[in-house]
């Protein structure tokens, strides 16, 4: 699977780390997401020059006041501001009813100057709100999270140019591209089948012409299945579940896990680890994403990418209608 | 994988066929579809009694006059009539434009007395018609072929109770159920990723908790992938491509292929074969579907099933609104 150039890159990376045992090349989401954001900033600058002050616009709708949601949203708003995307945070109180949330969504759907709308999940409301209903109320043309049924349907049936791709798997694909390993004809294994990671990841790998195996909590022989992977994407939500001993030599390992485990050596008393046991996987994989600094930052970058694409489609449509 | 009862069934089946080498139990679509149709007939009779003459209603929209379409449609109309479904054949001339086709669809969408609408593909029109647009114009609540993006999205993300499942893969699942082999925890391999067979088949097996591998024309090691299957579903469209030597002992083989190959011994000069080389697969598989008489008749039965389900949902909705 390795080209000579990639092999030389790996040997250099390995020798830089001062250990011959650690052979995997680290695929940095921090670096790659920075490249993506820089590219998008240029595109947005060009749009602004070409279309007299035009800016892509994103609305982040939040219900309630969860600490974790606040943190995620502030990261998104900051990334948008840096790129030149006009991002607006709409916050409804936790007393908001389902109808009020739907009304808010409809008003953004109808606003022609907004190109992207995401609803920050989980909804933090004292009222019962149907997540599916809310997710599918977002206009498919503005659904830059790619979570509506229509976008999921298009992706799952291979209409990739006509849909929004969920941000985390889209970021994983970008990281795989960074390795230079081609996906077509490879055996990819995905662990997990969630709506935001596993299921769309399967679709993306499949339509990039990999043979894809999806594993999950009911898979009885996970180590054997993982052992056949040329490309492994893990979105299981279980700390350090995948062991290095399971891997085939030379695998590409993409770890979507974000798990907090106790660590007395840290001031916070905990640290973040992925779904892959990094220290052992690092010995066998050819490429591996770290946690943190791997898939995480890519998710935000791809949300920005989708927003810029949506704005471009909007401009194109407007030009065609002139 | 085999229970004692299933093993005894296989041995009996094998001895009935008068050969010890032929070990697979034949999973008959003719028999199973008959059972489904009989069950549906009873359900429709009950509906009629309970709701003063109510009948499920299906519209089959055809554009043009292709011989193969005519044959398929007449099979569907006949099955519907036998069950008590009120099926109507709407035929537009091959001179029909896209707008005329869309108008026809909208008028059926708006007709409250129709519960199912299918557009017979391929469209036989002298005008350019966008298949995707037409397929997605069918109201998701009447899309008993399960081919619209919304239904595909729900199926692919595991919302199986809230969608229509495409008829061929739904029929395959019914045949697998007939074997008594449980799907959960098994390794299923699907060959093909088409919108009407492979892709939704993957979804159904996955959400029945199998570990699923999807193979296709870009899979380099098809025999090895097939050799790992506990359950194999083939929708490749290539005559007798899968050989018995590839199979693991005891596999369930479901063959969706319908291929015409030259045969001088037949009056028509040809015969129908599947995507699986039956004579050799029969030696290794535990269960196998024949071609013809396997998946084929199930497709029509499942269309009837979806139409009856749609009518039931319609009745339920009407009761709730009272």
UniProtKB/TrEMBL annotation, chains A, B:
InterPro entries reported for this sequence: Aminoacid_DH-like_N_sf (IPR046346), NAD(P)-bd_dom_sf (IPR036291), THF_DH/CycHdrlase (IPR000672), THF_DH/CycHdrlase_cat_dom (IPR020630), THF_DH/CycHdrlase_CS (IPR020867), THF_DH/CycHdrlase_NAD-bd_dom (IPR020631)
Record field: catalytic activity: (6S)-5,6,7,8-tetrahydrofolate + formate + ATP = (6R)-10-formyltetrahydrofolate + ADP + phosphate; (6R)-5,10-methenyltetrahydrofolate + H2O = (6R)-10-formyltetrahydrofolate + H(+)
Gene3D superfamilies: Leucine Dehydrogenase, chain A, domain 1, NAD(P)-binding Rossmann-like Domain
Domain Tetrahydrofolate dehydrogenase/cyclohydrolase catalytic stretches: 28-145
Keywords from the named record: Hydrolase, Multifunctional enzyme, NADP, One-carbon metabolism, Oxidoreductase, Signal
The EC number(s) this enzyme carries: 1.5.1.5, 3.5.4.9
CC terms in the record's Gene Ontology section: cytosol
GO biological process: one example: tetrahydrofolate interconversion
Pfam family for this entry, one: THF_DHG_CYH_C
Pathway(s): One-carbon metabolism; tetrahydrofolate interconversion
GO molecular function: formate-tetrahydrofolate ligase activity; methenyltetrahydrofolate cyclohydrolase activity; methylenetetrahydrofolate dehydrogenase (NADP+) activity
Assembly description: Homodimer.
Identification of the protein by name: C-1-tetrahydrofolate synthase, cytoplasmic
Annotated source species: Scomber scombrus (Atlantic mackerel)
């Amino acid at each position: 699977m390795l080209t000579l150039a990639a092999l030389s890159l790996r040997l250099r990376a390995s020798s830089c780390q001062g250990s011959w045992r650690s052979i995997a090349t680290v695929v940095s989401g921090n670096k790659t997401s920075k490249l993506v954001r820089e590219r998008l900033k240029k595109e947005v600058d060009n749009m602004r020059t070409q279309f007299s002050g035009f800016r892509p616009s994103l609305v982040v709708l939040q219900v309630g006041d969860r600490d974790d949601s606040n943190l995620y949203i502030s990261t998104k708003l900051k990334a948008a501001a840096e790129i030149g995307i006009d991002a607006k945070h709409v916050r409804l109180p936790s007393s908001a009813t389902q109808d009020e949330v739907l009304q808010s969504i409809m008003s953004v759907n109808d606003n022609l100057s907004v190109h992207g709308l995401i609803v920050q999940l989980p909804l933090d409301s004292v009222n019962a709100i149907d997540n599916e209903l809310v997710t599918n109320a977002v206009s498919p043309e503005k659904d830059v999270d790619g979570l509506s049924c229509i976008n999921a349907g298009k992706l799952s049936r291979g209409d990739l140019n006509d849909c929004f791709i969920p941000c985390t798997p889209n970021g994983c694909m970008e990281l795989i591209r960074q390795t230079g390993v081609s996906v077509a004809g490879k055996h990819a294994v995905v662990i997990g089948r969630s709506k935001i990671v596993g299921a769309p990841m399967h679709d993306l790998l499949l339509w990039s012409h990999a043979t894809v195996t999806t594993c999950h909590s009911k898979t009885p022989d996970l180590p054997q299945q993982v052992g056949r992977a040329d490309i492994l994407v893990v979105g299981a939500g279980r700390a350090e579940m995948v062991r290095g001993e399971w891997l085939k030599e030379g695998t590409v390992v993409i770890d979507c896990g974000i798990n907090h485990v106790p660590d007395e050596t840290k001031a916070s008393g905990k640290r973040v680890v992925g779904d892959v046991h990094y220290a052992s996987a690092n010995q066998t994989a050819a490429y591996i994403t770290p946690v943190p600094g791997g898939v995480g930052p890519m998710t935000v970058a791809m949300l920005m990418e989708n927003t810029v694409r949506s704005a471009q489609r909007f401009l194109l449509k407007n030009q065609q209608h002139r």
